[in-house]
Amino acid sequence: MNFNSTGFVLLAGLTICIYWLLGARNRTRAQNWLLIFTSYTFYATWDHRFLFLLILSTGIDFACGLGLAGVPLRRGKLLTLSVAGVVASLFLCGPWNWPALVQSAIPETLISASGVSVQSGFLHQDADWNVAILAAATVLVAACLLAIGTLVRSRRYFLCVSVVGNLSILGFFKYFDFFIETISESLHAIGFDIGASTLGLIVPVGISFYTFQTLSYSIDIYRRQLAPTGSLLDFAVFVAFFPQLVAGPIERASVLLPQIRKSRIFSWPQMQAGMFLIAFGLFKKIFIADNLAPLANAVYESDRVHSGPEILLATYAFAFQIYCDFSAYSDIARGVSRFLGIELMVNFNSPYVARNPQDFWRRWHISLSTWLRDYLYIPLGGSKAGTGRTSRNLALTMLLGGLWHGAAANFVLWGAYQGGLLGGHRSIRKPLEKWSSRQSVVARSIFAAISWTLFFHLMCYGWLLFRAKSMSQISVLTGSLFSGWASLPAEMNTGAKLAFYIAPLLLFEWAQVRTGNLLAPLHWHWSVRVALYVCCFYLTIIFGAFGESEFIYFQF
Predict the structure, then answer these.
(1) CA distances from 254 to 225, 235, 258, 275 (A)
(2) Across residues 335-340, what is the average pLDDT?
């Protein structure tokens, strides 16, 4: 269920209405029950079996959080969690014919009106309980590990259960096939054929995001930076909060959990800000990102040889497509959350105004970059271990950041490239700053413009690595970048389309950078705001690429 779908509008709208009816009676706990119901319903629209992993991760980290703080996990609560987990595994992972179950609960007239085809029988003909039994066994193993922890009473033990448990789930579903293929191909290249086959696993949507979110909860408790919550309901909402469940931002428990626990107050300014964020997000998704996608796909989804201008313009298109697509999701998530009285962190802050990689990563996917900094880069030693080790720490952090995005060689290469940019910039930063401080204002301005131009194109080459379908395509595109420039006049039409679609974005970015306020248009004169809204509305209606196209980061 996408944010730009009718189904989501209905689900979110109904939830918000009921939510504030409950809020009028100060029923915070009832509001949280509504949030968890909506969140699980929202997540189940992709595949109801994915819910099992979400619930399993929630149960493990809730119990580990209590164990890390020395709070006794009573046998009754552990038994309840175990039984609930086993029932959930059999119910969610069993071969139930869900359309038939839905048909039994919903009147025939409504199903006919929806146009959904329904098979007969409550079980599929190829019913196989193996997956459900394996899931139930996984729950029992997790319960046994937690039970052992109540006897051992070691904080490090509970941290290991949380980290190993979460990373095992993430690693198996996201990286198992990738590593099997890589090992098999490597051995085959030197003459060994092990005949290994992949499992064809489907990557559960959002697993990278909620895994990192729950991991930060356990690690913060271990570091004594956070007290655990004793409410399983509140923690479940923290893990599965539907606006940011699938593609972030990756929230910290120290920020989100207190908002979930306290009473939320209806506020018109919050509603106004939420409406602006949702509208701006939809504009970036429908008018900019989805219109730029065909310009990028014309090169990256084609097998023919392209000229340098074609590749460069397609890469420009993808650079703005991925930014508008991903930041649109974050904006809509923040907007919907504002309607629920909850504030999510800013995930993007005009990243393409950056003149160096360090500044870029302070502005791009802020929730991930700060997570990697706090839980990987600094524990490795950060920048306090000498130049060589600092470069190593940067390289490892960005390499794993690339792997976080996907199980493919191009993502690993992209991460290594980003680590190289950060390390290279760090080595020349102080000499450049010293040189720049001795120059005139005009010279510094020229240097700043050159720095921005150079770095923007270095980032664009990074997006080429990110977007390419294979290592061979990277090689071909890189080799073709500097050829065929005589065809530049023929690409003017593509360049004009690109400029048309990104022009409104540049206006917004200019206003945000100039004022330092990401909600700057809300403070403009009412006549300017009306003109802006009308202009964006008509641009979207006339030129928008309508359709329920998925957000790019859903695959991560």
Answers:
(1) 8, 12, 7, 26
(2) 94
How many angstroms separate the CA atoms of 26 and 537, rounded? Answer: 37
Q: For 339-356, what is each residue's pLDDT tens digit?
A: 999 999 999 999 999 999
Given a contact cutoff of 8 angstroms between Cβ atoms, the answer to whether 349 and 331 are in contact is: no
Q: What are phi and psi of 544, to 5 degrees?
A: -65, 145
The amino acid that residue 277 corresponds to is L
290-300 vs 492-515: helix crossing angle, rounded to 10: 130
In the three-class reduction of DSSP (H, G, I as helix; E, B as strand; rest coil), residue 440 is classed as coil
Lowest mean pLDDT among 64-73, 153-162, 188-197, 320-329: 188-197
Token couple for 519:
């909600």
Distance CA 526, CA 533 (A): 10
Share of the chain above pLDDT 70, in %: 83
> What is the pLDDT of the chain when averaged over all its residues?
83
> How sure is the predictor about 247, in pLDDT bands with cuts at 50, 70 and 90?
confident
Task: Indicate the pTM of the whole model.
Answer: 0.86
Q: Name the residue type at position 112.
A: S
Q: How many CB atoms lie within 10 A of CB 273?
A: 19
Classify residue 100 as exposed, middle or buried by CB count within 10 Å of its CB (0-12, 13-18, 19+): middle
Which tokens go with 27? 């029923």
Give the residue extent of every domain in the chain: 48-94+129-266, 357-479
Q: Which two tokens stand for residue 410?
A: 């191009």
- 377 vs 513: which has the higher pLDDT: 377
User: Is the preceding peptide bond at 249 cis, omega within 30 degrees of 0?
Assistant: yes
Rounded Cα distance, 82 and 67, in Å: 16
Please give the positions annotated as active site.
Answer: 405
| Helical (H) or strand (E) element with 92 | helix 75-93
Distance CA 490, CA 494 (A): 9
Instruction: Please tell me the predicted confidence (pLDDT) of residue 31.
Output: 92
Question: How many Cβ atoms sit within 10 Å of the Cβ of residue 245?
Answer: 20
| 234 pLDDT above the threshold of 80 | yes
Q: How far apart are CA 184 and CA 178, in angstroms?
A: 10
Q: How many CB atoms sit inside 10 A of residue 403's CB? A: 17
DSSP 8-state class, residue 123: B
Residue type, 109: T
User: Within 13 A of 146's CA, how many CA atoms are on the CB side?
Assistant: 32
H, E, C per residue of 480-510? HCCCCHHHHHHHHHHHHHHHHHHHHHHHHHH
Cα distances from 18 to residues 43, 136, 172, 400, in angstroms, run 19, 35, 39, 42
Torsion sign across C-alpha atoms 108, 110, 112, 117: negative
